[in-house]
Here is the input.
Amino acid sequence: MSTSIWASVDYDRPGKQTGDLWLPYSVHRSAYGNLTIPLAVVNGAPGPTLLLTGGTHGDEYEGPVAFRRLLRWIDPAALRGRLIILPALNAPAVRAGLRTSPEDGGNLNRAYPGEPFAGPTAAIAHYVSTVLLPMADFYHDAHAGGSSLAYLPFVSLRRSGDDALDAAALAAARAYGAPNIQIWGYSPDPRLSTAEANRQKVVSLGGEFGGRGTVSREGVALVERGVRRLMAQWNMIEARPEDALPGESPARTVEVSGRDCYVYAMRSGIFEPAVDLGDSVVGGDLCGAVWGLEDIADPPHDQRFSRDGIVMCLRHPGLVQKGDCLAHLAIEVPS
Here is the structure.
């Protein structure tokens, strides 16, 4: 297997280990240097392998915090199977608080299946594709809106075209206990982590659990509880009574079905939203207005929704450039 990355842990050794992935990276500052990526492996009795990644984008924090919390309480003696946890997968971006890597400008979630020697971002994606996903039965990549977006919290799955795989992912999403399940039916970009998991027939979930570049307490709790519920669903741990939700009702299921779910800025300026997360809208409703920055006499430029739906995502910073995503909708579908 050709990969530039090596691990300081043994993926098969019983018990709990922490260490790093080491990515050789020769730069002016350090001729024989490495980039390091924190890693934990927990092995219990025989069972399935669950791969958890957070920090794919470095300004999304709920996954990294929740996975670190999970690592503190998980007991190998009570575990059936193996956990592989990378809470800061795109470690250079996480350390810099940036969506993309400060080393090469790469977006890790637009890099799969990656290449072993084409720069840090491509090398990390290649390691996930060729080493980690082949070991995994299940995969969860936790996201948030980062610095530029705010999201209504949801767990998500990406349609694969394989009915059995999609049914298994949907069953997992229902077990997660999130208030919303979002299906990515419109998926023009094949370079995402969950798209790679689909290609390898690994049951996978994504999700957006916060945004605005902050740490959502609700989002952290949702991810931590959701992973415990998944592990109980897959018989990796015993179910915990405190993870049951009082009066639990089925999650609302929504789908992003096409490009017309998105609203993009048609000019640069200051975005004044006219809706809130969770609002229901119809086609033609006002999404918001973009105010110009130069001529005070310029009228605002109205931005409208193209179709009916639920507002799942909104632009966070007020300043926008033409082409920025201002919002996206999802359409409720039968649960």
